[in-house]
């Protein structure tokens, strides 16, 4: 956004509570690699120039990448400045920060979609002897006690951490709710190549039937490993991870699971089939069938006949629970009445119903790719155009 504002000669400042790439410096586990290939982190005026376009950046490499971008565009950046309150004034906004006050006509909220790890309301019912942690606290398996681990949530974070923890010798039970299954490689090409080329990531928020639902869809079950492995539930069970249905509650020292595991997996397999159909259709329409490998389908997700419906948390089998149940933004510092009942900012493609206020970096903000690094550029171009017109006093379209 700063790059787009500079291109339009709009005077601005970027306030950051930490250093550039703060979330990557402070909130990621050690082994994390991007699940988007190197070529797919295109920022305005800055693409991938290395010799491994199909590789997946480690966290230190991601920090270096974002730092290099900041050096290249040299934004008016004030780091180590936490915004502690933001409130409307007669002609704009007033911000209190740890480094003093600011006034501005317009403001772009780019404080991230994943500031706080979610845990279910019943998390407080877990017996004290069990250690609970979130992906924000988790760094590596050595942090954990020996013994069994219950990982709750089977999207990108949950499947990656279940795999890593199980490989460390700690038996893992994975509680599976709604999830999106995806092969790493399909017909010889990376899944993100298909998503990008077939235009799936370009789908716009105003062309989707149920955008509220689309914004809540969990992340793909994907990992970015050098071996390009597919990390779906079949891969995990082949390694010995045990699956259960969604964790419904914790009561009297027991974790109680819903009996819907089979249905969750069948639905996910069905959606995967539809996604692959989209890719096949696109390949045929564009005359690419000869250029990629032939279509194929994945084995249905294997589910044991009677997955456990409860786990005794006092029995010594489980020592740790990891909540991989998603993330949410933190707006505790925002004193503008723009939050909905779920505590998320109301907006129309990033245009917030408060004059001159904009939002960036949220799932499906303007496009399906909006919450990816690769999605920031197009959203920033659109929203900076709107902001420019707002400052000029025009009615932005
Ligand atoms: C576990 C995980 C894995 C991911 N993997 C990928 C991937 O493989 N590929 C991909 O493209 N994307 C991935 N993403 C998404 C990626 O993080 C986002 O695309 C990107 O970080 C969005 O950037 P952002 O600047 O909007 O948000 P953030 O990176 O969250 O940055 C927000 C910034 O705002 C600062 N901030 C927050 N509150 C305040 C305040 N009150 N005052 C001052 N500063 C504040 C924070 O310190 C932070 O630096 C992943 C996200 C997570 C959580």
Can you offer a commentary on this structure?
The protein is of the alpha/beta class. It is built from nine helices and 21 strands. Helices cover 24% and strands 18% of the residues. The strands form eight sheets. The chain has a five-stranded parallel sheet, with helices on one face. The model has no long low-confidence stretch (mean pLDDT 97). Flavin-adenine dinucleotide (FAD) binds next to helix 2.
Q: Element order, helices and strands?
A: HEHHEEEEEEEEHEEEEHHEHEEEHEEEEH
Count of beta strands: 21
Residues in β-strands, percent: 15-25%
| Biggest sheet record | 5 strands, parallel
Radius of gyration: 22 Å
The overall average pLDDT, rounded, is 97
Helix percentage range: 10-25%
- What class, by secondary structure content? alpha/beta
Q: What is the topology, as strand order, of the major beta sheet?
A: 8-19-9-10-15
Overall outline:
globular
The gist of it:
With 397 residues, this protein is an alpha/beta fold. The chain contains 9 helices and 21 strands.
List the helices and strands and how they pair.
Layout: H1 2-7, E1 14-15, H2 22-26, H3 59-73, E2 77-78, E3 83-89, E4 92-97, E5 100-104, E6 107-109, E7 116-117, E8 131-133, E9 148-152, H4 156-167, E10 172-175, E11 180-181, E12 185-186, E13 189-190, H5 191-197, H6 211-214, E14 220-221, H7 233-239, E15 242-244, E16 247-251, E17 254-257, H8 261-285, E18 310-312, E19 318-323, E20 327-328, E21 357-359, H9 376-391
Parallel strand pairs: 1-2, 6-21, 8-19, 9-10, 9-19, 10-15, 11-14
Antiparallel strand pairs: 3-4, 4-5, 7-20, 12-13, 16-17, 17-18
């Amino acid at each position: 956004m700063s790059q787009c504002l500079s291109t339009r000669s709009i005077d601005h400042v970027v306030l950051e509570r930490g250093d550039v790439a703060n979330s990557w410096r402070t909130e990621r586990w050690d082994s994390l690699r991007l699940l988007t290939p190197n070529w797919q982190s295109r920022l305005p005026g800055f693409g991938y120039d290395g010799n491994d376009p199909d590789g997946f950046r480690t966290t230190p490499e991601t920090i270096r990448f974002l730092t290099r971008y900041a050096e290249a565009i040299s934004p008016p950046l004030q780091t180590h400045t936490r915004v502690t309150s933001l409130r409307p004034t007669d002609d704009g906004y007033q911000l209190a920060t740890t480094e003093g006050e600011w006034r501005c006509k317009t403001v772009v909220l780019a404080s991230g979609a994943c500031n706080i790890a979610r845990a279910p309301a019943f998390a407080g019912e877990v017996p004290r002897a069990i250690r609970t942690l979130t992906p924000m606290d988790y760094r590596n398996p050595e942090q954990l006690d020996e013994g069994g681990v219950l990982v709750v949530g089977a999207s990108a974070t949950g499947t990656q951490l279940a795999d890593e923890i199980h490989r460390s010798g700690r038996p893992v039970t994975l509680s599976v709710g709604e999830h999106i299954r995806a092969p790493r490689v399909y017909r010889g090409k990376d899944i993100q190549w298909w998503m990008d080329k077939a235009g799936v990531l370009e789908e716009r928020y105003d062309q989707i039937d149920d955008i509220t639902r689309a914004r809540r869809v969990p992340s793909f079950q994907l990992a970015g490993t050098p071996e390009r492995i597919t990390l779906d539930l079949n891969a995990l069970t082949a390694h010995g991870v045990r699956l259960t249905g969604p964790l419904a509650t914790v009561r009297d020292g027991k974790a109680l699971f819903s009996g819907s595991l089979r249905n969750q997996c069948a639905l996910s397999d069905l959606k995967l089939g539809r996604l692959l159909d989209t890719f096949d259709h696109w390949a045929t329409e564009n005359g690419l069938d000869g250029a990629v490998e032939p279509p194929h389908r994945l084995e249905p997700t294997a589910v044991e006949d009677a997955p456990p419906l409860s786990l005794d948390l006092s029995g010594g089998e489980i020592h740790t629970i990891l909540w991989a149940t998603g993330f949410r933004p933190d707006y505790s510092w925002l004193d503008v009445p723009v939050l909905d009942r779920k505590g998320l900012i109301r907006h129309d493609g990033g245009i917030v119903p408060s004059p001159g206020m904009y939002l960036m970096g949220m799932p499906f903000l303007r496009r399906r790719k909006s919450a990816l690094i690769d999605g920031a550029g197009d959203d920033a171009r659109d929203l900076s155009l709107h902001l420019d017109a707002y400052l000029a006093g025009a009615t932005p379209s």
